[in-house]
Structures are given as structure tokens and as C-alpha cells.
Amino acid sequence: MSFIANRVLNVKPSATFAIIAKVKALKAEGKDIIGMGAGEPDFDTPDHIKDAAKAAMDAGDTKYTPVPGTADLKQAIVDKFKRDNDLTYTQDQVIVGTGGKQVLYNALMATLNAGDEVIIPAPYWVSYPDMVLLAEGNPVIVECPQDSGFKLQPQDLENAITDKTKWVILNSPSNPTGAGYTHDEIKALTDVLLKYPNVWLLVDDMYEHLVYDGFKFATPAQVEPKLFDRTLTVNGVSKAYSMTGWRIGFAGGPTDLIKAMTKIQGQSTSSPNTISQAASVEALNGDQSFLDDWRAQFAERRNVLVDMLNDIEGIECLKPEGAFYVYPSCAGLIGKTTPEGKTLDTDEDVVTYFLESVGVACVHGEAFGLSPHFRLSYAVSLDTIKDACARIKDAVSQLK
Ligand code: PLP
Questions:
Q1: CA 41 to centroid of ligand 1, rounded, Å
Q2: What is the pTM of this model?
Q3: Domain limits for position 350
Q4: Is ligand 1 within 6 A of the CB of residue 175?
Q5: Which of 237, 298, 301, 345 has its CA 20 to 30 A from that of 214?
Q6: Which of residues 256, 285, 314 is at a domain's end?
Q7: Is the CB of residue 170 below 6 angstroms from any atom belonging to ligand 1?
């Protein structure tokens, strides 16, 4: 019998972190590799945020804080939810964690009993199903194919609900597709949930600020206030402020749930990083104008990437509303043969072929629960995007 617990044996390591490690290793060997797998903006954290961290250190803010976060940061989060989302929380209805990831994990650990079901629309962020498994729940995957814009349809949601359903996870804009739900699309889903009072909504708004072409971001608790008392709205500073390494995420939700999550955090990691919390106060309260420039750059990159991918025979790419990912279909490449005589049977074969033949690293769709697709991140320069697409086109042209 293994010394390692069953709950670990059931879980996969993060596929995206595995790709990042592979790219690093190949580059270290001197190979010419373009990494299109990154899950973080390529911009530096803005200076005013770094300055706030330096000031906190200089002021001696280097000790533990309360487990769910400092009063200053919790107030900045309360103000953010009011300003951006028209959601009214009190300080005891918010929690700060070590990244959005820990907040989501705490929520599942605080609520799932063995066998409880969590509905996860696919393609999904890689961690959701494994987090549910770690909490001894059952992930219930609902496929949302490209012809539905990768968005959960109300009837599919209703069909997936059972007596055991505890949560539905909704992530908009999405990692890995970039798809963003409009106000009306959210309303159609919340209308279904109004009929099922025991089902809660776990909302992941991590990419809220990265939306393009005037897309209007909306979040379920705002769209349907009747669901406010059974929604946990998760957000963070990682993506919007390019602070992935600072490890701060947060959520707003009902007091009892926040208390339960605080108990788990208090017995695992305690308070989040004190200096990062001070920096996050500045991120949320300070100047937001740099975001216009970032959005403009991301939108231009997305447009170039989508056009160049659609110019490649066998690849079909939707233009997403937000985040910094595209999720093209490679259905037209499945069944083709490489110059070495290998048949491409799966999307993993396709991305392996791209990596080995032309040095472009992306993540296969199977890791996100919907095939045959692959995810490309455009958190890289325009030149890199053009180079990557030219290389993919070259690789595809050699298939028979
Ligand atoms: N949710 C989604 C959809 C993400 O893409 C990520 C990061 O990749 C997270 C949550 C976790 O963010 P953090 O770095 O704050 O833990």
C-alpha cells in the first residue's frame, strides 16, 4: 500500500505548470523555443504598487496579520466590489488568501462532504476538478463546445443539477478560452439556479479587468441579487495588476462561509503575506489608468493572433471577449501524418508536434477538458505572436 494518501493519488499535477517547466528545460538546453503557454501577463507590476510594498517594509509591516487579511485590505476589497460590481459586502464578508487559488480551494474544503457534486463547465481552468477531488467531492463536467462560444447553456446546466449538487463554478472571462458571459447570458443561468435553492455559485472573476472591444463585464451576484446569499465571488490582483508572484486573492460571500474558510486558512497557512497585502491595497485603491494601455495591447495581440491562426488550414479560432488566451480547434489536423510518419491522433499529439518540429509550446485541450483544441496565451510580444504563428503554419504545411 502506498504511503501517499488516496486523495493525492487521484489528482493530477497542473498541466500548465508542467508545460512551463518543459519550456524552461528545453531553453536551458539551448533550444529555440517560443513559450505560448504562460498564464500570467508579461508586464511588470506597476511602480506605485511596488512602492507601497517598500513603504510597508520600511514601516515595519513585516509581522503576521489577522488570518482573513488586514482591515485596510478588506476595506479596499469592500470598496472595489461596490465600485466595480455594485456588490455591498461588509468586512466580515470578505477574505484574503494566498492567491485566488487558495481562496477557491478553501471554499471547496469548507463546504464539500464526500460525494457532493460540483458542476464545472468545460473547458475549465485546470485546477477546478482536482481541487474538488482533493476535497473529496465529485466534479461533474458539462461540455461547452466551440459552437456555443464555449459558454454553459441554461438547459445543460439544469440537466446537470442533482440532489447532490453543491456548487456550480462559473469563470468569466475564462481561462482557457477567454470567453466572457454577457449580462443576459448570466441572467439565463441564474434564472435556472433560482429554481434550485440548495445550489451555490462559485464565481471566478479573476480576469474581470481584461476585456476588450467595449465588452461589459458582469458578475452573477450583481445580475441576480436574489443569489447574493449563495454566491462566493472570487477575484484577485494576480492578472489585472500583473502580481502573480505576490500571491494575493480574495472573495466576498456570506459571513458563515467566510468564517468557515477562515478556519481552514487559520490551520493551514494563516494570514497571507503582509507586504503583499499592503501592495494590494494600493493596487485596488490607486491609479487604474495603466489598465487602458494593457487592454489596448492585449486586444491588438489577440486580433493578430486570431487572424493569423484562422489563416492556417485545419485550425479554427474564435475571437474571445477577454483574458489573454485563445482556444482554437485543431480538429482539421487530427488524422494527419507528420514528416516522420507519426499520425496525429489527439490534441496532445498536435502540441507535441508543434513543440518538437518548430519549437512552439502551447497546452493541449485535453488538460482543460475539451478536445481537440489547444490553448495559446498572448501574454507575449506582438513579434513573438507573429513568429509563433508563422512557425505553426510551417509545421502544418508539412503534414500529409
Ligand atoms: N482562476 C483562474 C481562472 C486562473 O486562470 C488563475 C490563475 O491562473 C487563478 C484562478 C489563480 O490565480 P492566483 O494566481 O491568484 O492564485
A1: 12
A2: 0.96
A3: 6-44+290-397
A4: yes
A5: 237
A6: 285
A7: no
